[in-house]
């Protein structure tokens, strides 16, 4: 897409020129006044998958689910803490068996009552292999998952044996192992309840989803627009502060941004990279840039014996100290990334397990020590670091080149590091799954739920689903097991932090930076914020 | 004439099969699309296997192609990864792109040919030099620059139009995008017409017509223009296909949800079904338009006969 890249540059130049002449946009459309009936016009991208809760793993579909569904828990948009939503209580005495009581008085927007069965049916559907739900692994901790979703072959059961409806509003869950913070995972969209129409008339559900959230779908033209309107009989206390939201699909985020500056759009939650440097002035400060639960790291191929020698940790630490994170985040990312000092994310908060500076000096830029450590560790395997990345999306080339530059400067060797691009993202993923990486490679992690567990277990536990480097460490594994069995939240978090120290001492992956979410909005709306998943908190937006 | 058309229609079959096969292979070379569906995480192997099976990706490529072509002939273009039928995508995308193409072609015909005739008749005069210079500028500036500039000037600075086209994409909204899309071809049409007119102006049949005492207007429209338009018609005909498929840049700039956008998104998501389906239709359009252009020759130039 050479043309597109050029277009971005041109657009950048043009908008710079526009900012220089201090020109604002005109006014048209919108409206509603400050009585809470105004409609927010927001940019959107075509969701990659049908809008099924257990099948949506990207932010565009996530936006809609966040508006039309409420689960047992909800993550506080500001702190990320999991708070009871539909759950009246979730009880356990052994961290394995949970009894869940659903609040009374909740209905779907079509009038159907939300019962324990709405949850159990939804979870069974999500876990079942034949339904092709991409978030099925969320149900992996529930007993019977290996029957409904075997790694190979066909399923021998349709329902999770660990789920039992015990009353109209109560059901029990049995996990395969202790997992004390499991209830806090229930805020994820995959755990949403589903109405009967989802199972009985799936096509009509997909063309116009029905949920139990503060908004209802008014009309949905696939691939172009979705109109959501406030649901007046919504029983929750997070009622919509506006009359509705119109999500408009844009072919390009530059076009959406232009439309925002022209006053035809109220909210763009994906400010194009080329506009970041001038967005704040273009929009007279109506620009937000807040941490999201995403961390970028460099993972290592531990299946390659060259990278897994007894002294290799020194090489990895040395490389980490050779990266000038501060400079790269400021010059390339315009401060939309923050240098990482641990392996989690600031959105977890101190109580949730984020510990600034846990990485210590290993994440500081210390070229001299970096050189020393790499030498002590036996030098770089093969004499050259090849950082793997995919070239098709996300402008990874820029930062990989910058990281390599930094390493080359620190090690006084202009051939110490080069980028090693793979054409497409899918191909890149294939190489990783097939264990074909020969050097460190880009690894991004977007949290599923704001728990420290989610930043460690799936990534570093032996043979975990996203342990792409296949790192394995007994001490780490046992600490994670211990933490999951801990009944006390704060003790569990402490133990996870100990486990994270093991990651640090071995430098299982080099933490690079925490990613921010950015959004720009028009002067017609206020109270705009992004939640820890970088999805705008639509129900709190006020239309002036 | 009839036999000629039949022969041409038969020739289309190998072209059609070859073109679709090439596209099918090219999309397949990009690698396994399923791996990209699960974000930065690895898809769990069971779901991955299940999806491959559902989209028929677990079979050898030749078998995938045969199944696909078989389905195409029954009107089933498959399903995109987001669960939408490709035919459904087509029914929303093609009308929009066809409207955009019509606007663009109208610009080419009306503005391009008029300018061409005017400059061709007044060769060497200031107006000729002026228009020539202008076309040179238009040809040398890439479409995305013209597009973004017009969008910014008319849409943001002066507020004459909306910078982004709405989902309805009515004709009036498509005027500026259509002009942008047509701009380069428009310049070519002007130049082609001009050269052709200038050359034929000195032809014997024109001199004869003038000598017969026909009015100037009739000489130009009936004799001069009719013969001079042959190369122009070829160009515009070939351009219909090019405009429909090549509108990716213009469609992205002006937020038009047409064929170009669907193709772009299909390629990004490695959605074989969408890409091959749309390209197949474009190939058909191209072939049909070419045939029509060839038949038009006979209408324009009585000397041409098809046996």
Fold and architecture overview:
- Chain A is α+β, with helices and mostly antiparallel strands.
- Chain A is 31% helix and 19% strand.
- Chain A has helices at 2-20, 59-68, 116-127, 145-148, 196-200, 202-207, 253-261, 276-282, 312-321, 325-331, 349-352, 367-376, 396-411, 425-433, 452-460, 474-485, 489-506, and strands at 39-44, 73-75, 82-84, 87-92, 97-102, 163-165, 170-174, 215-221, 225-230, 244-249, 267-268, 287-299, 337-339, 385-390, 417-422, 441-446, 509-521, 525-526, 542-543.
- In chain A, strand 8 and strand 9 form a beta hairpin.
- In chain A, helix 9 (312-321) runs antiparallel to helix 12 (367-376) and helix 15 crosses helix 17 (489-506).
- Chain B has 307 residues and is mostly helical.
- Chain B is flat and about 85 Å long.
- The relative contact order of chain B is 0.14.
- Classes of the chains: A alpha+beta (544), B mainly alpha (307).
Please outline the helices and strands.
The complex is a heterodimer of chains A (544) and B (307).
Chain A lengths: L1 H19 L18 E6 L14 H10 L4 E3 L6 E3 L2 E6 L4 E6 L13 H12 L17 H4 L14 E3 L4 E5 L21 H5 L1 H6 L7 E7 L3 E6 L13 E6 L3 H9 L5 E2 L7 H7 L4 E13 L12 H10 L3 H7 L5 E3 L9 H4 L14 H10 L8 E6 L5 H16 L5 E6 L2 H9 L7 E6 L5 H9 L13 H12 L3 H18 L2 E13 L3 E2 L15 E2 L1
Parallel strand pairs in A: 1-10, 14-15
Antiparallel strand pairs in A: 2-3, 4-5, 5-7, 6-7, 8-9, 9-10, 11-17, 12-16, 12-17, 13-17, 18-19
Chain B lengths: L1 H28 L15 H10 L6 H13 L12 H36 L4 H15 L2 H15 L17 H26 L3 H8 L4 H30 L2 H6 L5 H10 L3 H29 L7
Helix pairs in contact in B: 1-12, 4-5, 4-7, 4-9, 4-11, 4-12, 5-7, 6-7, 7-9, 8-9, 9-12, 11-12
């Amino acid at each position: 897409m050479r043309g597109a890249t050029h277009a971005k540059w041109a657009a950048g130049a043009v908008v710079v020129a526009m900012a220089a002449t201090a020109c604002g946009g005109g006014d048209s459309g919108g409206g509603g006044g400050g009585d809470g009936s105004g409609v927010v016009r927001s940019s959107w991208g075509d969701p990659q998958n049908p809008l099924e809760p257990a099948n949506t793993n990207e932010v565009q579909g996530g936006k809609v689910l966040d508006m039309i569904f409420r689960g047992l828990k909800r993550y506080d948009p500001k702190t990320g803490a999991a708070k009871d939503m539909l759950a009246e209580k979730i009880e356990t005495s052994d961290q394995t068996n949970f009894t869940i009581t659903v609040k009374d008085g909740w209905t779907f927007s079509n009038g159907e009552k939300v019962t324990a069965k709405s949850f159990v049916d939804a979870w069974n559907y999500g876990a079942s292999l034949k339904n092709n739900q991409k978030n099925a692994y969320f149900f992996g901790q529930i007993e019977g998952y290996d029957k409904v979703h075997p790694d190979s072959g066909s399923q021998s059961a349709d329902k999770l044996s660990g789920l039992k409806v015990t009353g109209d509003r109560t059901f029990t869950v049995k996990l395969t192992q202790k997992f004390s913070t499991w209830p806090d995972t229930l805020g994820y969209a995959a755990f949403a309840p589903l109405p009967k129409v989802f199972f009985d008339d799936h096509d009509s559900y997909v063309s116009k989803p029905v949920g139990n959230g503060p908004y209802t779908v008014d009309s949905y033209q696939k691939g172009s627009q979705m109109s959501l309107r406030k649901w007046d009989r919504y029983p929750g206390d997070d009622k919509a502060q506006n009359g509705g939201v119109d999500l408009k699909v844009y072919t390009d985020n530059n076009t959406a941004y232009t439309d925002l500056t022209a006053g035809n759009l109220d909210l763009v939650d994906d400010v194009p990279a080329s506009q970041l440097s001038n967005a704040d002035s273009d929009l007279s400060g109506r620009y937000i840039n807040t941490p999201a639960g995403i961390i970028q790291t460099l993972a290592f191929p531990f299946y390659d014996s060259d990278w897994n020698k007894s002294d290799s940790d020194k090489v990895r630490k040395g490389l980490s100290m050779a990266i000038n994170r501060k400079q790269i985040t400021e010059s390339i990312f315009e401060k939309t990334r923050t240098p990482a000092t641990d392996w989690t994310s600031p959105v977890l908060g101190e109580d949730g397990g984020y510990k600034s500076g846990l990485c210590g000096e290993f994440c500081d830029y210390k070229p001299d020590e970096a050189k020393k450590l790499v030498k002590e560790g036996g030098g770089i395997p093969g004499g050259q670091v090849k950082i793997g990345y995919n070239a098709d999306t996300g402008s990874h080339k820029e930062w990989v080149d910058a990281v390599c530059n930094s390493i080359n400067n620190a090690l006084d060797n202009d051939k110490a590091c080069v980028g090693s691009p793979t054409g497409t993202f899918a191909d890149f993923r294939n190489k990783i799954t097939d264990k074909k990486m020969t050097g460190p490679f880009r690894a991004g992690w977007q949290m599923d739920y704001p728990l420290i567990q989610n930043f460690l277990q799936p990534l570093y536990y032996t043979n975990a689903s996203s342990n792409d480097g296949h790192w394995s460490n007994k001490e780490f594994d046992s600490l994670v097991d211990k933490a999951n069995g801990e009944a006390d939240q704060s003790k569990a978090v402490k133990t996870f932090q100990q486990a994270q120290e093991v990651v640090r001492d071995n430098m299982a992956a080099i933490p690079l930076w925490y990613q921010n979410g950015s959004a720009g909005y028009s002067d017609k709306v206020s109270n705009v914020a992004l939640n820890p998943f970088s999805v705008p908190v639509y129900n709190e937006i006020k239309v002036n | 004439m009839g036999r000629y058309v039949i022969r041409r229609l038969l020739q289309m079959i190998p072209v059609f099969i070859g073109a679709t096969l090439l596209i099918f292979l090219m999309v397949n070379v990009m690698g396994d699309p399923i791996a990209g569906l699960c974000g930065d995480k690895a898809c769990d192997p069971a779901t991955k296997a299940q999806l491959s099976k559902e989209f028929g990706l677990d079979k050898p490529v030749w078998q995938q192609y045969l199944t696909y072509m078989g389905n195409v002939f029954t009107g089933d273009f498959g399903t995109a990864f987001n669960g939408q039928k490709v035919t459904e995508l087509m029914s929303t995308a093609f009308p929009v792109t066809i409207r955009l193409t019509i606007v663009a072609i109208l610009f080419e015909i009306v503005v391009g040919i008029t300018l061409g005739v005017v400059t061709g008749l007044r060769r060497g005069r200031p107006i000729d030099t002026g228009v020539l210079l202008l076309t040179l500028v238009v040809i040398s500036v890439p479409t995305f620059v013209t597009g973004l500039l017009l969008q910014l000037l008319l849409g943001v600075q002066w507020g004459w139009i909306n910078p982004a086209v709405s989902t309805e994409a009515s004709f009036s909204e498509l005027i500026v995008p259509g002009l942008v899309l047509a701009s380069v071809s428009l310049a070519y049409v002007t130049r082609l017409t001009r050269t052709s007119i200038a050359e034929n102006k000195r032809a014997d049949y024109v001199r004869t017509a003038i000598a017969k005492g026909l009015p100037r207007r009739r000489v130009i429209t009936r004799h001069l223009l009719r013969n001079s338009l042959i190369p122009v018609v070829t160009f515009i005909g070939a351009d219909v296909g090019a405009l429909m498929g090549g509108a990716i840049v213009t469609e992205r700039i002006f937020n038009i949800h047409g064929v170009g956008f669907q193709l772009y998104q299909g390629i990004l998501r490695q959605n074989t079904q969408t890409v091959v389906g749309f390209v197949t239709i474009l190939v058909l359009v191209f072939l049909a338009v070419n045939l029509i252009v060839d038949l038009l020759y006979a209408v324009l130039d009585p000397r041409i006969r098809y046996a």
